[in-house]
């Protein structure tokens, strides 16, 4: 019943603001044109508002999930006229606020104290109001200026209803649409559900902010405000108040003499630093959450707020993504195609040469062009057509990253349309990859993991024994291989007191695993010779120190 009620509200809002006029009727098949003519929307009077205002108000009425979608659209001025984009921009921090008395009650309940015992002053009129929460200015008893973020009342119920509708729609898409299984809509909705409910917990957001602040401590790229943990709960967050110019206020930035080219380049650098250095990135970087400090116009610094949605990647996804992007920047489309196959993003039986040719036809036209000359709408359409042709699956773990990339690209388009995105990003990626595979990177990895490896050596004999037992059960092993494994297993049993044999068995087992993993071989081939020499020297030293001598 709640799904039906929510659907009725959605259709009511569509009719109320006559959003049916946004549908390009001339491109629809005849049966859909007839269906639209029969809808009851035509009985609604047309509002005396602009198209942009109607779209914005409809999203505000429909709640936080639709507001967030509008925030994303507001950065895509290549897809919408300026008047619509300007209206959607108001969704970033000008959503209608809720009652100040409610805000006061939520703050006192969350902090378990009267406001007068925490703040010397508290402004009931909100500074900004967004889809999930609103922000009030305040001053602590010690005089420090802060902002107080308060979760909207009853917001969770509305979000749950929208998520249920999204699941229902995803089931229909997966079952009846020809591309449904490839798009994996249920997994995408599940990941979004986790993200949006995490955003409702302000204590989690405070932890995200603290982590990001540590990552960029003393950095000239971006400043993260301080969190006051003594006054933070799941429904209330108290944070240092910052003063800056909204990043979307381009006229003011230019009037302050801000170096717009440097500002746009720093935005790209911040994104790649978060994704590849830290694997912890701000995934809600719409203009309402980003400010610019005017303190040093020639070397401007960003200021970020609102850390409810953060993303991260596994080391495997990090590596594949970095190598894909580097190959893309170098126009090595064969490598891009091969990496997609190796990672399982396209079926294993995909013909590399055909996939390479398709990628080249999509990507080549956008190189050596500034952002202002690139139609990303057309590019994404072509990319989607290529993905469908080769049965490429959507990667749910990358959806947040793709959303953030769209935000970054939209920001760059506003700040400095002549930005060369490729030449800005490529040096950073090359430097990151170099640090990973050269001796300093190898030594750091060894330093980080060696204590754990040392602890696990005591468990290794049993683990190896269990692994061999499992391998014996596999039908595809040949008789000769089975004999070899049995011989090695007996050798392990006969020498349980000798650590030297455990080390030997471990190395043999690792070698067998490596030899069967083509992806790992492909990665190992890229490591410089000097790194291999250093690694072998380190292994020799460690084994000499770790393995007791047979001499009495």
General description of the model:
This protein is of the alpha+beta class and 552 residues long. It has four domains: 2-92, no CATH class; 155-196, no CATH class; 245-437, no CATH class; 439-546, no CATH class. The protein has 24 helices and eleven strands. Helix 3 (51-62) runs parallel beside helix 5 (82-89), helix 4 (64-74) packs across helix 5 and helix 13 packs across helix 18 (421-437). The protein starts with a helix and ends in a 6-residue tail after the last helix.
Condensed summary:
The protein is an alpha+beta fold and 552 residues long. It contains 24 helices and eleven strands.
**Total domain count:** 4
Residue-averaged pLDDT, rounded? 75
As residue ranges, the low-confidence spans are 496-533
Q: Quick one: overall form? A: globular
Supply the helix-strand structural class. alpha+beta
Percent in helix:
55-70%
| Rg of Cα set | 28 Å
Work out the number of β strands. Answer: 11
Distance between the amino and carboxyl termini: 80 Å
Query: Could you give a short account of the major beta sheet?
Result: 5 strands, antiparallel
Counting DSSP H or I runs of 4 or more residues, the number of helices is 24
Percent of residues in β-strands = 5-15%
Function: Is probably a protein kinase regulator of UbiI activity which is involved in aerobic coenzyme Q (ubiquinone) biosynthesis.
Subcellular location: Cell membrane
Pathway: Cofactor biosynthesis; ubiquinone biosynthesis [regulation]
GO molecular function, one term: protein kinase activity
